[in-house]
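Morning!

This is the sequence you dropped in the shared folder:
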Amino acid sequence: MDWLQDYLSREPVGDLVIGESFHKDGTPNKINAQVVGFERKFAKLYPEIKLHRQDEFYTSKRAMQSMIEAGVPKMKRRQKERVDKIAATIILQDFMESQR
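The structure's back. Tokens below.
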């Protein structure tokens, strides 16, 4: 949250897209509770910024597949932070495509 607050103090932001995390059967998983908590806190701090939820199901697997296809070495594919960044990009891309 500190990084996000710092960023929002420097950059104009009208919307924020966050991942929506569920099990295969559509029921909320344990991460979803953290997402809900984040949403509540964020909405209180930044009521002027619209929050959007985007399904993040399989985005980590899609991120891994894209790294394989791009020829990223196995050691770098094991770095969770790297996979998470690519998955976040996929979530944003999916959201943008859903807005057409």
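Headline: The two ends are 30 Å apart (CA to CA).

More detail when I'm at my desk.
O.
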